[in-house]
Design brief:
heterodimer, A: 592 residues, alpha+beta, Heat Shock Protein 90, Ribosomal Protein S5, domain 2, Ribosomal Protein S8, Chain: A, domain 1, 3 domains, eight-stranded mixed β-sheet, five-stranded mixed β-sheet, B: 376 residues, DNA Polymerase III, Chain A, domain 2, eight-stranded antiparallel β-sheet, 6 helices, elongated, binds adenosine-5'-diphosphate, binds magnesium ion
């Protein structure tokens, strides 16, 4: 990655017309924004070593020292005035932006709300310039001894606007905002050396390094083997960078970095493209890690949407969306981050793909009778699942063997199912697995006509509180779609006459009350009634931890689980399957 | 303790009690079996604290005594031995020596005092039931009990001793079996108890054993919260399940007026085949009853399979489409002994009643099955 920028030494006051074309706005709302603007300037100035010095979360001091081009005396003074920039001159340039800054308003804005000490020396000069400016008013301009580069110290931010100072958060919080901002630069500009001091303590010192090394340095060593490299320059948008394997995802949005031509950007639609490529391999409430660099002809994108320059507008957003999405999903698939769930059964492996059930044993049939034994469903191939060619070959062997049932499946603690697969072992949490199956079936049933319902010999009479009764009334039509037959009995009393056919015997008595309770619990955070009901139903009618399962039941559960849309996570986001590879086992037993 | 016996005799005796030993227990002594020698009689006893089974066998006693040994080890070694003479002695260290002509084994043992003492409570009324009669009552009902711990009262067979009949009832809430025998009367003594399934299975097993003669009788008595079944050389003592058995009589319909007669085996084999293509969890099949025929069909929507068969029947009422769990139907058919059976139907959402085409003398057998309401 090269940091492409035009170096223009002369700062020009932007013409009135151009000024108006640049929407005015507040650039600086907190110390982190100051740090961002200053860093951009240092990077635009071609620096390869940048030191950041903070005091009190940036509230007392944000100082950036670089070894870039520096400014001469005239430019140094000009730079602190509004709409002075050396980076663009005409309106056309605005559509061909290669530098991080271009609006020419950052320094001036910062100057107006703080005390600045600017010290800068160009290569040509032997002596440097020192400018002191206080609330936007130049106090003092003098000559000092200097080395090439610029040092800008921003002190006492918002000292003259107490109202805004009040809005700042604690030192720690502001410090974290700054760290967050810095990481956007330090990850991308890996050839630049960065140092950070906070309250006189050295926080980090990144030496120039390869992109991949810098990434781990910034994100942390625990991501070492957890990223996959992306690289695609086959289209007009060049995509490179890294995406996390599923165990690198987080409950918070933390590790998501998207860059356009070296600029960190925020773009909901492209974020969606990336996240949706992950599909269901990570839970809904987790955020995948990504650090993706897009490179695109600057003329195909408008970066001047907001003063923060973080929002951009693409001329072909939909196209970029689909290119990005497919690049990410290709990378995920080729990295095999989803283990091949190929079960080992002696010599014969059985693929867990949809359709296995159709290869039922045909024993007991006489050939003279003809039965409609159903169409073979060709296994569709979700990401990372076994190659269809393979599975076809394997289903043939399976047809020959008249009966199969995975035998290398064990239940432990009446809670987990362990099975051997080609690449190692998997552990399935039986409750959440069943929850996932029931949840998807429930959602599916809501759309369909009413399913069948096992009628009860002893109808269950239940008295509800008025509140529960009113909830029941609301969800009754959906309960019927799940297979319940419930009738009013006068007052707040109801009679359950039928239950879903696959409900575990004995659950009938308590299930309704439990569903209503669970539904109430989720009412506040789940807006969609159906989703809530499907979750409550699946949670309460699924087999529990502690339920003993027979071999047949375990096999059935596994088959059904892998026929779901999302076998890896339960509706609440808890993992269903843990995969331990033979490699990992070998490693842990020190067999290398 | 010191005695000699033969492997076959000892092993047979052990088989009568071993079934009571709990497979999982937090009380290790319950994994042991109690051996008590008194002259030439060896008594073997096992318990899980709810149920106790004890049997006697004749051995050649040398010295009286007692001990408890792990039932599994004893069973495993006996199973592997050919039918040879055995000599068993307890040494001072408390190990049970088992000697054969060729071999010598030592089993860890614990003293009798560690074993829960079984107090067989006094019970009211002593009745005698024909062996095969009890065996039949159990066999016809026990398959329909519930295995669900949330409804403990359904986890056993309801024994009703009425003035002019003896009745057994089992249900799991989806189906029900009721069998009554009028040959047995408890004219002086009326009582109803719920007997746990495990005890009944143990009794069945003992009744099948060759030492029980065709015409032998079981002595049967009911106490406050227990029952005892005494067979020729074995007794089964069991606590009864506490709680109120559901008022099942109320749910047996008496206005099912549509009569369907089918051949039992034909129906069973059709259902078996068609159900291969039913949903693997609900086992749902559809019976379309029409004039003189029943079409049995299934459809597995998830996996796309389908099954269809038509069998002939005697029926001339309005056509009905009724869904059933195939397993329930098959279970019931297995326990019907007549060639033809008769369904009494009402509509597609009400209970179906099933009778054998002819009852045995003094017997009244009825089964009931709840349908699956089909999608509208
Ligand atoms: N660290 C620096 N080194 C060299 N030049 C700088 C530096 N910081 C600011 N400048 C000059 O000051 C100008 C104004 O900066 P700024 O207000 O951030 O506007 P912009 O970056 O949008 O041009 C820049 O165009 C640049 O010429
Ligand atoms: Mg700038």
């Amino acid at each position: 990655m090269t940091n492409r920028f035009k170096i223009m030494t002369k700062i020009k006051v932007l013409s009135e017309d151009l000024t108006n074309k640049i929407a005015a706005g507040e650039v600086v709302d907190r110390p982190a924004a100051v740090a961002k603007e200053l860093l951009e300037n240092s990077i635009d100035a071609g620096s390869d070593k940048i030191t950041i010095i903070l005091k009190d979360g940036g509230k007392a001091l944000i100082q950036i020292v670089d070894n870039g081009t520096g400014m001469d005396r005239e430019d140094a003074i000009l730079s602190l005035q509004r709409h002075t920039t050396s980076k663009i001159f005409t309106y056309d340039d605005l559509h061909n932006i290669h530098s991080l800054g271009f609006r020419g308003e950052a320094l001036a804005s910062i100057a107006s709300i703080s005390r600045i000490e600017l010290k800068t020396t160009t290569q040509k000069q032997t002596a440097g310039t020192l400018v002191r400016i206080d609330g936007g008013v130049i106090e003092d301009v003098s000559t000092t001894a200097g080395v090439r580069g610029t040092s800008i110290a921003v002190k006492n931010i918002f000292y003259n606007t107490p109202a805004r100072r009040k809005f700042l958060k604690s030192n720690d919080a502001e410090y974290r905002y700054i760290l967050n901002t810095l990481s956007r630069f330090t990850i991308y500009y890996h050839q630049i050396e960065f140092m950070l001091y906070h309250n006189d303590q050295l926080i980090f010192h990144y030496k120039p390094s390869a992109q991949s090394e810098r990434l781990i340095e910034v994100l942390g060593a625990r991501y070492q083997d957890k990223v996959i490299e992306l690289n695609d320059s086959s289209t007009f948008v060049k995509i490179s960078g890294y995406i996390g394997k599923q165990d690198a995802s987080k409950k918070s949005r933390g590790n998501q970095y998207l860059y356009l031509n070296g600029r960190y950007i925020v773009n909901r639609s492209l974020n969606h493209a990336i996240v949706s490529a992950y599909g269901t391999i990570i839970p809904r409430d987790e955020y995948p890690l990504y650090v993706i660099f897009l490179e695109l002809d600057p003329r195909r994108v408008d970066v001047n949407v907001h003063p923060s320059k973080m929002e951009v507008k693409f001329s072909d957003e939909r196209l970029i969306y689909s290119i990005l999405r497919s690049t990410v999903s290709k990378a995920l698939a080729s990295a095999h981050i989803i283990p091949h769930f190929t079960f080992k059964e002696a010599d014969e492996a059985i693929n867990l793909v949809r359709g296995v059930q159709t290869h039922m044993p045909l024993q007991g049939y006489e050939s003279s009778r003809s039965y409609d034994i159903g169409q073979f469903i060709s296994p569709d191939k979700p990401i990372g699942q076994p190659d269809p060619i393979n599975s076809r070959a394997e289903s043939q062997t399976k047809e020959e063997s008249s009966f199969f049932e995975r035998k290398n499946v064990w239940q432990i603690h009446n809670q987990y199912i362990i099975s051997e697969i080609r690449s190692g072992i998997i552990i399935i949490d039986q409750h959440v697995a069943h929850e996932r199956i029931l949840y998807e079936r429930a959602l599916h049933n809501f759309e369909k006509r009413k399913p069948s319902s096992q009628q009860l010999l002893f109808p269950i009479i239940q008295e509800l509180t008025p509140e529960d009764y009113s909830i029941l009334n609301e969800i009754l039509p959906y309960l019927e779609h799940l297979g319940f037959v419930i009738k009013g009995f006068g007052g707040n009393t109801v009679v359950i006459e039928g239950v879903p056919g696959d409900l575990k015997l004995g659950n009938e008595e308590t299930i309704l009350a439990e569903i209503i309770d669970e539904f109430k619990k989720n009412m506040n955070n789940s807006l969609d009634l159906r989703d809530n009901l499907a979750k409550s139903f699946s949670c309460k009618s699924a087999i529990k931890a502690g339920d003993k399962l027979t071999l047949t039941e375990m096999n059935m559960l596994i088959d059904q689980l892998f026929a779901t849309q999302s076998p890896y996570f339960c509706p609440h986001g808890r993992p269903i399957i843990i995969n331990i590879s033979i490699d990992e086992l070998n490693k842990r037993f020190h067999r290398t | 303790m010191d005695f000699t016996t033969s492997k076959n005799d000892f092993y047979k005796g052990l088989q009568k009690v071993i079934g009571v030993i709990p497979s999982k227990t937090t009380i290790p002594i319950l994994e042991n079996i109690l051996l008590e020698l008194n002259e030439n009689t060896l008594q073997l006893t096992g318990t899980d604290l709810e149920i106790c089974v004890s049997t006697e066998l004749k051995v050649n006693g040398v010295q009286n005594g007692s001990c408890t040994v792990p039932a599994k080890s004893l069973n495993d070694i006996l199973r592997e031995l050919p039918d040879v003479p055995l000599k068993l002695t307890l040494d001072e260290e408390g190990k049970l020596h088992l000697k054969t002509e060729k071999g010598f084994y030592k089993l860890m043992s614990q003293p009798k005092e560690e074993f829960p003492s079984i107090v067989v409570e006094e019970s009211e009324g002593d009745m005698e039931i024909d062996n095969n009669f009890l065996s039949r009552m159990i066999d016809k009902t026990v398959f329909a009990v519930s295995h669900d711990e949330l409804r403990p009262t359904l986890m056993g067979v309801y024994f009703q001793l009425n003035e002019n009949e003896f009745r057994c009832v089992a249900t799991d809430g989806h189906r029900l079996v009721r069998i009554a025998n009028t040959a047995f009367r408890a004219s002086e003594f009326q009582k109803s108890v719920i007997v746990p399934t495990k005890a009944l299975n143990l009794i069945s097993k003992n009744l099948e054993s060759p030492s029980e003669k065709e015409d032998s009788k079981v002595k049967f008595s009911i106490g406050e919260n227990h029952v005892i079944f005494r067979m020729t050389d074995t007794y089964v003592y069991s606590k009864v399940i506490e709680g109120q058995y559901p008022k099942y009589e109320n749910v047996i319909p008496n206005n099912n007026d549509k009569k369907l007669v089918v051949n039992k085996d034909e129906l069973a084999s059709s259902v078996k085949r068609v159900s291969i293509f039913s949903n693997i969890i609900t086992h749902q099949i559809k019976c379309s009853v029409e004039e003189n025929s029943v079409r049995i069909s299934s459809e597995d929507i998830e996996y796309g399979g389908e099954g269809n068969e038509v069998i002939s029947a005697k029926y001339n009422d309005e056509p009905l489409d009724i869904g059933y769990n195939a397993n329930y139907i098959l279970d019931m058919l297995k326990h019907m002994d007549t060639e033809e059976i008769q369904f009494l139907l009402k509509d597609s959402v009400s209970a179906a009643i099933i009778y054998p085409i002819a009852q045995r003398p003094n017997e009244d057998l009825m089964m009931l099955i709840m349908p699956i309401r089909l999608n509208d």
